[in-house]
Design a protein that fits this description.
The chain contains 13 helices and 22 strands. With 468 residues, the protein is α/β, with parallel strands linked by helices. It folds into three domains: 218 residues, FAD/NAD(P)-binding domain, CATH 3.50.50.60; 121 residues, FAD/NAD(P)-binding domain (3-Layer(bba) Sandwich); 107 residues, Enolase-like, domain 1, CATH 3.30.390. The relative contact order is 0.12.
Length: 468
């Protein structure tokens, strides 16, 4: 029986990054992945393929709507969705191959098969058509990620009632698409199809889009999405979704009452969140159990009830983000190596890859009000930027929230072009506990989208931005 210093179950961003860091720090490391390819949900059916389609669809939409004003004539525009999907698959394949290379480079033993605990020091790896293999380790990291959450009343059949996994494989453009959920996945994939010409209707139980983000971001992103033709039904509850012939039929009604009604479309995309995936791990054999929501309880060191078994990423709750899982993986491994890493959950950014993008880090205005923290807010619109006018990306704003008494930045929220990249600068400001004045007095290159951050910091600091 092979024995390792560390065995990691799950090869998503949390798992494979933890494996690399462990190998770098001298540990004999193994990684178990139940599917044929490494990378988990993010690389195979999540972050990477969705961004490939988002970029392709945005190029098509620009060619259709804005190229002419730039003096670019494209003649008769033609959509080839199959080619778009083919490119997406190629991007995924190349990215996954890169993970294979990194495993070999770092001499990490990779097992393909389903891992289940035999006891707290041994896992059984089941492989189709092959004999089971037992592997032992001194320490374990559970990094098995999550799956789309689909209630039984939605009658998920992967044909007309679909999740993001199936939506990323559609090779024929739907005429109508119903999206249940106005969170990150719903808005991203809804915008992909809306750009390509699909009639998209988003149904949301709550009163706004992106309910976990700052309300100003929710309000700001609706304008460009509605320009795409996306329709929104807020405060609506879905009772049932089912397939009827070649249509998806959704039964719903307003939350405050009223007559139930039905909507029909070619597909219904269920995007109401994700659940921790621990199916078949046999946690009880290792002396572990999940909580009432299915998450594995951990302490501040990310140790489970067994101190030599750790859990990271989507299976422990919190923000279900690839970069959060990565940081947790590194955090665990560096502790095992005797280092003293730090992990600040309140400074982990969130990004929505619509266009314009939405990005956020730190506290929202609603959270500050609820906590009774005195604050001041500064906002600046993208349309006042020379760079935004030059590119035609006028939608969006930057919002800076700072403590009213000591001026420390508490949160930064961005809707606009390149928000996903700008938020990294915002994370740095929060990590070093910068004040709004600090951010305002830094020199920013001109003309850039980043200048909106400077102006919003000025607005928060002394209420006097320069260009509005």
């Amino acid at each position: 029986m092979q024995t390792f210093d560390l065995l990691i179950i799950g090869s998503g961003p949390g798992g494979y990054v933890a494996a690399i860091r462990a190998a770098q720090l001298g540990m004999k490391t193994a990684l178990v992945e139940r599917y044929n390819t490494l990378g988990g949900t993010c690389l195979n059916v999540g972050c990477i393929p969705s961004k490939a389609l988002l970029d392709s669809s945005e190029r098509y939409h620009e060619a259709q709507t804005t190229f002419e004003e730039h003096g670019i004539g494209v003649g008769q525009l033609k959509l080839n969705l199959s080619k778009m999907i083919e490119r997406k698959n190629a991007v995924v394949s190349q990215t996954v191959s890169g993970i294979d290379y990194l495993m070999k480079k770092n001499r990490i033993e990779v097992f393909h098969g389903h891992a289940a605990f035999e006891n707290d020091k041994t896992v059984r790896i089941s492989r189709k058509g092959k004999e089971d293999q037992l592997v032992q380790a001194e320490r374990f990291i559970i990094a098995t990620g999550s799956k789309p959450k689909v209630p039984p009343s939605f009658h998920y059949d992967k044909k007309r009632i679909i999740t993001s996994t199936e939506a990323l494989q559609l090779d024929k453009l739907p005429k109508q698409l119903l999206v249940v959920g106005a969170g990150v996945i719903g808005l991203e994939l809804g915008s992909v199809f809306a750009r390509l010409g699909t009639e998209v209707t988003v149904i949301e139980y709550l009163d706004r889009a992106l309910p976990t983000m700052d309300k100003d971001c929710s309000k700001e992103i609706l304008r460009p999405l509605k320009k795409l033709g996306m329709k929104f039904l807020f405060n609506h509850q879905v009772h049932e979704a089912k397939t009827q012939g070649r249509k998806a039929v959704v039964a719903l009604q307003k939350r405050e009452g009223g007559e139930p009604f039905q909507l029909k479309a070619d597909y219904c995309l269920v995007a109401i969140g994700r659940r921790p995936y621990t199916d078949g791990l046999h946690l009880a054999k290792a002396g572990l159990k999940t909580d009432e929501r299915g998450f594995i309880p951990v302490n501040e060191k990310l140790q489970t009830a067994k101190e030599h078994i750790y859990a990271i990423g989507d299976v422990v709750g919190g923000a279900m983000l690839a970069h959060k899982a990565e940081e947790e993986g590194v955090f665990v491994v560096e502790q095992l190596a005797g280092q003293q890493p730090a992990l600040h959950y309140d400074r982990i950014p969130s990004v929505v890859y619509t266009w314009p993008e939405v990005a956020s880090v730190g506290r929202t205005e609603e959270e500050l009000k609820k906590a009774g923290i005195p604050y001041k807010a500064g906002k600046f619109p993208f349309r006042a930027l020379g760079r935004a006018r030059a590119s035609g990306d006028l939608d969006g704003m930057v919002k800076v929230l700072a403590h009213k008494e000591n001026d420390e930045i508490l949160g930064i929220h961005i809707v606009g072009a390149r928000a996903a990249d700008l938020i990294a600068m915002a994370v740095s400001l929060l990590e070093y506990r910068a004040s709004a004045e600090d951010a305002a007095r830094m020199t920013y290159p001109h003309p850039t989208f980043a200048e909106a951050l400077k102006e919003a910091a000025l607005a928060a600091w002394d209420g006097k931005p320069l260009h509005i």
